[in-house]
TrEMBL record:
<feature type="domain" description="Calcineurin-like phosphoesterase">
    <location>
        <begin position="42"/>
        <end position="223"/>
    </location>
</feature>
<dbReference type="InterPro" id="IPR006311">
    <property type="entry name" value="TAT_signal"/>
</dbReference>
<keyword id="KW-0378">Hydrolase</keyword>
<dbReference type="Pfam" id="PF00149">
    <property type="entry name" value="Metallophos"/>
</dbReference>
<feature type="signal peptide">
    <location>
        <begin position="1"/>
        <end position="27"/>
    </location>
</feature>
<dbReference type="InterPro" id="IPR051918">
    <property type="entry name" value="STPP_CPPED1"/>
</dbReference>
<dbReference type="InterPro" id="IPR029052">
    <property type="entry name" value="Metallo-depent_PP-like"/>
</dbReference>
<keyword id="KW-0732">Signal</keyword>
<protein>
    <submittedName>
        <fullName>Metallophosphoesterase family protein</fullName>
        <ecNumber>3.1.-.-</ecNumber>
    </submittedName>
</protein>
<dbReference type="GO" id="GO:0016787">
    <property type="term" value="F:hydrolase activity"/>
</dbReference>
<dbReference type="InterPro" id="IPR004843">
    <property type="entry name" value="Calcineurin-like_PHP"/>
</dbReference>
Amino acid sequence: MNSRRKFLQSGVALAGLNFLPSINLFAGPSSASIKKPADLKLRFAVASDGHYAQPGTDGDKFYGDLIKWLNKEHQDNHLDLVIINGDLVHDRPDLLPKIKQTYLDKLPVPCYTVPGNHDHVDAAMWKAVFGYEDNHVVDKGDIGFVLANTTDKMGKYICPVPAFLKKSLDDFKSKPIVFVVLHVPPHQWLPEEKANFVSCPDTIELLHSYPNVKAVLHGHEHTLDVIRYTGKLPHIFDAHFGGNWGTAYKGYRIFEVSADNTINTYQVNASQSPVVNSAKL
């Protein structure tokens, strides 16, 4: 399956959030060092949908490539953390410990995860593997992350737990920037998305009521590497790094928070596929 639907991309930008064009990894030599630039508060990567053990695919290559790409990203430009936004495995929760130990533990910076609909786990199993439950927060000083589960153990799409989401946002209300991480988007932008997204109007209303929620980060839809909006709130997708459908390339998304709280984000075409505008003269 190459695409599940048409997609919508808005040209409206929220003040303080800049959307840079996607880039190709390894496009040229880098002069950056591993030290984080002084004008950045935080720099992190988000990747999703590894789908390890999906039949007919090479999950070890997917994860091996991701770890190689992110290690190079850190060496060249510095990372503070990595987020894996759901579908770490493909209907094989028994392989989650292998994913963590063989691959994610090889990352040079802390890595945080949230379940997807193909992970088929409950809070207890997620905590046993990763050390935190399927709903958790990450505190990075001025910046907070709220990672909420959007599926049940059977893979059904669900709205985030309202009490958890509200308490987490209340706890972070003094922070200038909060990112909310949800694998399945809680909004359906197009009629044909009814079967693949979940409609959670109460979640959207809650997110809109906190001005410091600057973006919602989503995986799940492998064809999307764009930014959509509910009102002025950006919902940002990062395509996929595994699986057998979606964008022709595999990659991840970078976020950079500057000292003045400006947020830059761009998508990385890490696999260099497809090659664009190639010619032999």
